[in-house]
Design a protein that fits this description.
Chains A, B: Keywords: DNA-binding, Repressor, Transcription, Transcription regulation. Chains A, B: Pfam families: TetR_C_24, TetR_N. Chains A, B: This is TetR/AcrR family transcriptional regulator. Chains A, B: InterPro entries: DNA-bd_HTH_TetR-type_CS (IPR023772), Homeodomain-like_sf (IPR009057), HTH-type_TetR-like_transc_reg (IPR050109), HTH_TetR (IPR001647), KstR2_TetR_C (IPR041490), Tet_transcr_reg_TetR-rel_C_sf (IPR036271). The structure is a homodimer of 197-residue chains. Helices cover 73% and strands 0% of the residues of chain A. By secondary structure, chain A is mostly helical. The first copy, chain A, folds into 2 domains: 40 residues, Orthogonal Bundle (Arc Repressor Mutant, subunit A); 141 residues, Tetracycline Repressor, domain 2 (Orthogonal Bundle), CATH 1.10.357. In chain A, helix 4 runs parallel beside helix 7 and helix 5 runs antiparallel to helix 9. The longest helix of chain A has 27 residues. Chain A is elongated. At the A-B interface, helix 8 and helix 9 of A face helix 8 and helix 9 of B. The first copy, chain A, binds a DNA duplex (30 and 30 nucleotides) through helix 3.
DNA sequence: GGCGCCAGACTAACCAGTCGGTATGCCCGA
DNA sequence: TCGGGCATACCGACTGGTTAGTCTGGCGCC
């Protein structure tokens, strides 16, 4: 009964995406063969190339999914009806929690950018920039309002914080002493303290 | 006259290392063929395998060089005869400058760890940990002395800062408005402000 | 009877590492 | 001072294995 799914109920494209995400995170993009992916998803190459144009395409889909999710969440927090320092704090903490919940995505995101074709890379960078700008705007708003110090350019602060978020996939261990939320609170504290006038 | 160097004066092993560093940073480890490396260095495979055991070995050498340099510099700053907040500030700013001066090394470092053989990976991690501990000790010393807040565990602060340093290779552009030193000062400021009690 | 969905053999390209061979300088005995 | 043995430094063709992507065909639903 071949009809976009079998065995378990999830559709083939999603199974492929899930398998690819896990394998890319574990072994890296180049070290993962298309053969491995299709075996992990319980299908064959025919299926993969039916739904995706190339291996590169598969990677691009992973990026698209992550970007969409993060942007949505940021918008939610940034648009909330709260004082700017609370909005920033919530957004900063949320991105940490979300990243931890999708650690595979995160390690792929930063480690495999250069495997995307130039045009897809450009596209991802553009979306990434939008995200960055939104976050920066939040900080600038606080700086104008006098809630945050103006000593450090907002751009730098954003990169400082996201550097640490990016780094999470390198050192965070689920069996560590801190829950994702506790960790997120700490990191958000660091950011907010660094912004204190 | 083949005798460890020719054309320019630099010895062949160093030429190979330099070529490999550049290419690994530009294209990633897997995307760089041994053939490309030897061509960039102006030799052939015979030469490469004469000096290095494997492609993996070459990568390991890059890591060894970076680790040695960073550890040396950290030790210098941490052992200085200065108050703890100045020592931390200097160390934190120096690692930024050094990283910018060797951006290729930095992007390889975090992007290609998983390409090292398991045992070499372990070795690199161990050395990395030593570095981390030294830095953490500095922060803990300040916390004990009451110069830094104890609100955030020292470990976390270290990862927070190095996350941003790591991230540098992603967004830093030499033609940007800030000199490496200015940027380093800003990032060190952020760290110190986040640690203010 | 056609179309979406997929299987799996096949191909053309590439790549790390090997290996037999060559060239050069150095040491040491005669 | 000569020469021959030996080590170091390197060359480049070759091999065995792997890989992304193609293509032909078949199965079942509408």
């Amino acid at each position: 009964m071949p009809r976009t799914s079998d065995g378990d109920g999830t559709p083939v494209p999603q199974r492929l995406l899930a398998a690819a995400t896990r394998l890319f995170a574990e072994q890296g993009y180049d070290r993962t063969s298309v053969q491995e992916i299709v075996e992990a998803a319980g299908v064959t190459k025919g299926a993969l190339y039916h739904y995706f144009g190339s291996k590169d395409d598969l990677l691009h889909e992973v990026y698209a999914r992550v970007l969409r999710l993060q942007q949505e969440r940021l918008d939610t927090f940034a648009d909330a009806d709260e004082p700017v320092d609370k909005r920033l704090r919530d957004a900063a903490a949320d991105v940490v929690v979300t990243t931890i919940e999708n650690l595979d995505d995160a390690s792929i995101f930063f480690r495999s950018m250069h495997h995307l074709s130039p045009e897809k890379n450009k596209q991802v960078r553009a979306e990434r920039r939008r995200y960055h700008e939104r976050f920066r705007a939040l900080i600038e708003e606080g700086q104008q309002a006098g809630v945050f110090t103006k000593e450090t350019p907002a751009d730098l602060v954003v990169d400082y914080h996201f550097g640490s978020v990016h780094h999470l996939s390198t050192w965070y261990r689920p069996d560590g002493p801190l829950s994702p939320q506790e960790l997120a609170d700490h990191l958000a504290d660091l950011l907010l303290r660094a912004l204190r006038p």
